[in-house]
Amino acid sequence: MIDLRPVINLIARIGFVLGLMMALPAVIDYQARDPNWVRMVQSMLIVTVLSALIATASRSHAGSLTIEQSFLLTSGLWLVLPLIGALPLMLGAPALSFTDAYFESMSGLTTTGTTAIPKLDDLPPGANMWRAILQWSGGLGIVVVAMVFLPVMKVGGMQFFRSEGFDTLGKVLPRAGQIAAEMTWLYLGITIACAVMFIASGMSFYDALLHALTTCSTGGFSNYDASFGGFIGPAEWVASLFMVLASIPFVRMIQATRGDFVPLWRDTQVRTYLRWIFYSVAVIVAYRMLYIHQTMHPWDTVRETTFNVITIFSGTGYASTNVLEWGHLPFVVLFCVGLIGGCTGSTGCSVKIFRYQVLFEAIRSQIRRMQSPHRLYSLRLSGKRLEHDVVYSVMAFFTMFVLTFGLLIVGLALTGLHPKTALTGAWTAIANIGPVWGPEVSYNGSIASFPTAAKWLMTLGMYLGRLELMSVFVLLLPRFWRG
């Protein structure tokens, strides 16, 4: 029988910390003389008191987590924390229903960025800041989970990075807790730098802080219905830079901060990611200049395209213009890059560069075997040998991703959504990207008018996609619960 006390205790402790974070939105609303601060304080007291009581009651002397407990912790966190995040959205402004509040909170903590709020411009400043804090917290959480838990659980080929997380940094960071702390400081430093550069680009302090939180988490929540449309110009370049930084491996950036830039430069994930971004931008810019009537300066076309490609590629989900006006080919390119995503070990989402590299390497190896059946081939990536269990895990992930994506499209279509809305809704949910396109989507990208069933299906898709699918599906096996 699995001992649930360590899992419950850790979830309660993290919930307590998330509850304390409600203090900042409360202060912001108080200074703005918005009565919503009272509801925010009430939510904070409810969450912190309950979390403290649960943590005390579930105290355990276990020194470490088993594999089964690790699966339960990662899956349980992204079910319970959205409940906590939804509380201020239900008790105060915008006074959402439970379905919409849980959807909004799940979208924040999974750094998806799709919103169920009809009008963002009218929200209290504290409520918008709370949405940004949810995304920032979720971005940090997924980095820690990706480099500490998923490699141990061998989810989606992540065991390939087990040595990356625990050995690459040498004796400086010998334990998982220290690795998490180092990543937290790096994440905080990137966020502060982003906020400072946003201020330098012309944003107010509040807008800069909020968008720094949602940029560095590659989340994409904004406090404006126009999303990033009100910050045309230098702010787009700043956001593009930090979206790229947030979607490359944090382990490599930690090494770079210690003066060792070689691993970052040699990392094939990073080079491939940057190269594919360049190719995508080049194709769309060329298409727009050749086939779409342009009234803006060519340099502005490059800036606008670069920003909107990176925001989809990284899974951030901002928008500074209506990309549907670019034509069919750019839309297909954006759809494809959304299904690729950033690098493993970052806040980036979707399938990840690493898994496509493994897939292509496996296909290349199979073609070689067909040409020379008796020759032995060793699969390698970044100079390291790819073990068979890594390849099998990646193939299993791709299979489950495609099947889940397909079922989600069908499910959303059965709720009555337009086929285009069902397709992009499933795409944005399973890959944690953000934007949805279709006749049911409001002018600011809100899915508030979606049927309740569609919202819950998208919530499930965001949850499965952020936790790499297999870490959730394994809980459905009776053998798991027998240990």
What can you see in these coordinates?
- The chain is mainly α and 483 residues long.
- The protein is globular.
- It has helices spanning 5-20, 23-31, 36-57, 67-91, 98-109, 125-153, 162-166, 176-200, 205-216, 234-246, 250-257, 262-266, 268-291, 298-313, 328-338, 353-371, 388-414, 419-430, 452-466, 470-473, 478-481, and strands spanning 380-381, 384-385.
- Strands 1-2 form a two-stranded antiparallel sheet.
- Helix 2 runs antiparallel to helix 3, helix 6 runs parallel beside helix 9 (205-216) and helix 17 runs antiparallel to helix 19 (452-466).
- The longest helix is centred in the N-terminal third of the chain and has 29 residues, at 125-153.
Average predicted confidence as pLDDT: 90
Shape: globular
- Rounded Rg: 22 Å
DSSP helix fraction: 55-70%
- What is the subunit arrangement here? single chain
Detail the poorly predicted runs.
165-174
Percentage of residues in DSSP E strands? under 5%
Strands in their spatial order, largest beta sheet: 1-2
Distance between the termini: 7 Å
Question: Helices and strands: which structural class?
Answer: mainly alpha
Number of helices: 21
Largest sheet: 2 strands, antiparallel
Number of separate strands: 2
Helix and strand element order: HHHHHHHHHHHHHHHHEEHHHHH
